């Protein structure tokens, strides 16, 4: 009986015991397999981490907030990888027993094998956790701070009145009214900034409504500001309902909606704004030229923004025209000019910028013109003056051209280029490239004089609504008039004088029937846009163009055209975008002067024939990017276009081998071609295109199509471009002749370990003309060049053959997770023309220049003689610019062992490992002679900006900004500074510094400490701003007051512990004979917010008569 019970138990116990013992022996017997398996899993984990980090970078570029679970997962990955690396690194040590050298240490192998299995299991589980559908979420937009009133008393008081009205619980809608150009929008932006800063509202959304209010557009802008995404694309009522839900989902949330530039009253319910009586905490701020509009909208409080009084107008004018003293002898004339602007800020801005740096006789001329102006509107008079003062008719015509676009629209300069080319606006513009360069130059000039604004993107511009009104007013005078109307609903607008119009720009909200035989005999430009849902398109009648014989530019969007239609023989620009075209070849037969022809996103039904298409021999730009697939080109189609400069082919995949052969052959014949765009997945075709065109192209966009969630791309470009593909061998595996004339190279999402991987020496001539190199998201990249380099002495011996990277001017590297060093010393020696260096999101990068691994003969510090701008951003392990031998245990110095004699601007953000920026011992003397701007942010281990004698290296520094450096306790530490005691002459240090901004200095105790007697600092400092420095008790010692003779602006914000601006002399070497009278001769503005600081020490306060 007992045996029958005990027997199975013993047997079971034996099984468990044997299994456990067997498992322990497996740790020993499968040691190599377990270690190799762990190494493979670590590599898989790194790949997964790189993919997630790439997605994170993409989300950040799209302003998405990264999910906390993603951040936590990446942290777990780093921790687990470090633990796994410890196990793997331990396997490299000698695992031998103490007595028998050939006998493995079984205990060590056992422990390592067991740990390897544990880490492998943990890695597999962590990889499963890392399957994220999305890594980021969209959050409400963060408002940019806006300060535009320049401390003008009347503006400050008006702002207080508006904010007080918003604080009133009985007021839901507040209006801001005033003349055009008086500053209503500027005031609304300042109110927006301040109510957020003081916490009056949790969210603020500001949208421009403008004259031609389009409900869907306003809803889009409002949703963007509130972080709301619409699923409903065209139904404004459904969108209004979603906005209503967003604004009412939390009745405790305080929200301010600002509707700017209202021209007429609109129904708030139509926008999606709920009844304010039902939503506590929601308020509306309106701006309008018309007080009655605000009243109709229900504004109980309407505040008028008045023109500036004479004194404030002159202060603003001085700032804009940059007249800060009477040394120029212009002050008397400037006062009169400012008075003629009648206190209108827009007029002051325009006239002031026009007269900046002008001669005295030009000031007198402007004054005379203003005094004798016939126009009753002073804003228009001031704009007219600036308009007349433009240097050429080309500038004036270009500005008027911008008024053809809708109010508040961001205008693509490329569109203006095509219009200007067709109208022949510019002299001496033989090529399209000449026209484009001229257009960008004029755009910059117009922006500099405040007649154009920057657009939403770098290549776009905007018109202020008042400037646009002025341009249309100018265009309405004389023989040539503009007709500009938007969102017409029913029919072509009525008109009186058909012959007078030179340009017409009309947009229709829905398709209408267009009239026939419109008699516009002087019309040179016609823009027609159908902006509705495209359910039905406007159809062009047969006789529509019959009496438009002077037409030079046509831009159609969403229009339907059927043959037969006869166009003007003088037509030069024809843009048919998003159109439906059922035309015959005869449509183009007479267009012998046509230079620009585009079919972007259009559908086309046409039969091309070789003989008839040869007539387009004057064509310079051809865009064949149709909506559905490529346009089949017959053989020899391009041969007749000898002047063609830009060709956009679009998607070119499902085409025959013969057709591709013809294209390559014909592209070789186009000697003027400088721009090519094509999309294909034919790798061989891509390589043949490279071979055929790379020598002459300046702009090259070639994309390789690929399905799936992940893409690989390489960009070969003169100013843009992208080739999508799965592969990218090191470029030296390609024929080096491909890259002889390449001046711009961008690589993105590639698997290469090296840009140049040459077993022997680098081929001569490769990249010899390269000017820009951009590498992004290359997760496997280890080094830019893996090659033996010759020494660079030949560069100074008159050898004509340029070295590798000799002409390189701009380097940008971002998101390359594995790269630890940028260049070896020998590579760096080649870059004698480098001007810009930008490195970001390279998590393993430690240094820019490192010692050569094969050739360690170069002993002098590497030099970048022309490097002007350096940006180092989000580099977690970055510690130094150049190699630092025997650096273990030493503080890491950023600018060490490198000469930067021409550097003007240094930006460093989120460098988490650097402790010091400069060192007199390791930073070559004279290296920073031209450094003028330094921007330092979020370097958590940084202890100071400069210390002791290294402060002398910043002798030409003009601007310093320091933000969020949590370990920083002093900016400039003078302790240990060598001073010649025998020299009685006062020594000036930091004498060129004009602007100093210090923000979020959690541990900042001193700006300067231990300043020796005989040292004078900051004698040219004009602007000082200190914010959120909680431990700072005073800014400077009282003995330094006499140094601030140039100080104009002083801001101190949110410094709770601040007791006094100029404090006691406990931390400095006291200077005898401190002046008893405190004088700030140039100080114009003091702003103290949330701090109780006195101007000077409360221990020895001056009398009121001692302060000026």
From TrEMBL:
<dbReference type="Pfam" id="PF00931">
    <property type="entry name" value="NB-ARC"/>
</dbReference>
<comment type="similarity">
    <text>Belongs to the disease resistance NB-LRR family.</text>
</comment>
<keyword id="KW-0547">Nucleotide-binding</keyword>
<protein>
    <recommendedName>
        <fullName>AAA+ ATPase domain-containing protein</fullName>
    </recommendedName>
</protein>
<feature type="coiled-coil region">
    <location>
        <begin position="28"/>
        <end position="62"/>
    </location>
</feature>
<dbReference type="GO" id="GO:0006952">
    <property type="term" value="P:defense response"/>
</dbReference>
<dbReference type="InterPro" id="IPR050905">
    <property type="entry name" value="Plant_NBS-LRR"/>
</dbReference>
<dbReference type="InterPro" id="IPR057135">
    <property type="entry name" value="At4g27190-like_LRR"/>
</dbReference>
<feature type="domain" description="Disease resistance protein At4g27190-like leucine-rich repeats">
    <location>
        <begin position="740"/>
        <end position="842"/>
    </location>
</feature>
<keyword id="KW-0175">Coiled coil</keyword>
<keyword id="KW-0611">Plant defense</keyword>
<dbReference type="Pfam" id="PF23247">
    <property type="entry name" value="LRR_RPS2"/>
</dbReference>
<dbReference type="GO" id="GO:0043531">
    <property type="term" value="F:ADP binding"/>
</dbReference>
<dbReference type="InterPro" id="IPR032675">
    <property type="entry name" value="LRR_dom_sf"/>
</dbReference>
<keyword id="KW-0067">ATP-binding</keyword>
<dbReference type="InterPro" id="IPR002182">
    <property type="entry name" value="NB-ARC"/>
</dbReference>
<feature type="domain" description="NB-ARC">
    <location>
        <begin position="160"/>
        <end position="321"/>
    </location>
</feature>
<keyword id="KW-0433">Leucine-rich repeat</keyword>
<dbReference type="InterPro" id="IPR027417">
    <property type="entry name" value="P-loop_NTPase"/>
</dbReference>
<dbReference type="InterPro" id="IPR042197">
    <property type="entry name" value="Apaf_helical"/>
</dbReference>
<feature type="domain" description="Disease resistance protein At4g27190-like leucine-rich repeats">
    <location>
        <begin position="905"/>
        <end position="1056"/>
    </location>
</feature>
<dbReference type="GO" id="GO:0005524">
    <property type="term" value="F:ATP binding"/>
</dbReference>
